[in-house]
From TrEMBL:
Start and end residues of each NIF system FeS cluster assembly NifU N-terminal domain: 2-125
Pfam entry (one): NifU_N
GO biological process, one term: iron-sulfur cluster assembly
Protein name in the entry: Iron-sulfur cluster assembly scaffold protein IscU
Domain of life of the native organism: Bacteria
Gene3D superfamilies: 3.90.1010.10
PANTHER family registered for this protein in UniProt: IRON-SULFUR CLUSTER ASSEMBLY ENZYME NIFU HOMOLOG
Role: A scaffold on which IscS assembles Fe-S clusters. It is likely that Fe-S cluster coordination is flexible as the role of this complex is to build and then hand off Fe-S clusters.
Gene Ontology cellular-component annotations: cytoplasm
UniProt lineage: Bacteria, Pseudomonadati, Pseudomonadota, Betaproteobacteria, Burkholderiales
Family according to the record: Belongs to the NifU family.
Residue ranges crossing the lipid bilayer per the database entry: none
GO MF annotations in UniProt: iron ion binding; iron-sulfur cluster binding
Amino acid sequence: MAYSDKVLDHYENPRNVGAFDKGDDTVGTGMVGAPACGDVMKLQIKVGADGVIEDAKFKTYGCGSAIASSSLVTEWVKGKTLDQALAIKNTQIAEELALPPVKIHCSILAEDAIKAAVQDYKTRHGAGESKEAA
Ligand code: FES
Ligand code: FES
C-alpha cells in the first residue's frame, strides 16, 4: 500500500521521539495498544503551570501510519490546553495524513494515547474524571 507524502515525511523525520521522566509531576503519560494489530504507542505531555502543554514526546512500536499519527499529534498538542488536546479527533489526524480506511485504527491509537496522557496528568493532580483542576 502506498503511504501519503505526509505519512512518509513524519515516518522518515518523526517529530518529538523520546520520553520524559515519568516521575516528573508536570508530565502525563499515556500508553495504549491497538487490538487490531498489537502495536503500542506511548505518548507523554509536559504541562506548564498555566495548564498549557509545553512539550510532548512519543515512542511508537507500530506501522508507518501509527508513527506518523503520533508524530503529528505531538506537534498539535503543543500550545494547547488539556481540554483542547482532548478535543483532537482521530478523524482530523486521518484527514491530515490522508490515511486509507485500513489505517484508520492507527489514528485512533493516537487519539487514545493523548486522552490517556491527559487523564494520567489529571489523575496525578487530583482532578476528577472530566474536570480540570482550576
Ligand atoms: Fe500493526 Fe501496522 S500492522 S502497525
Ligand atoms: Fe496498527 Fe497501524 S497501528 S496498522
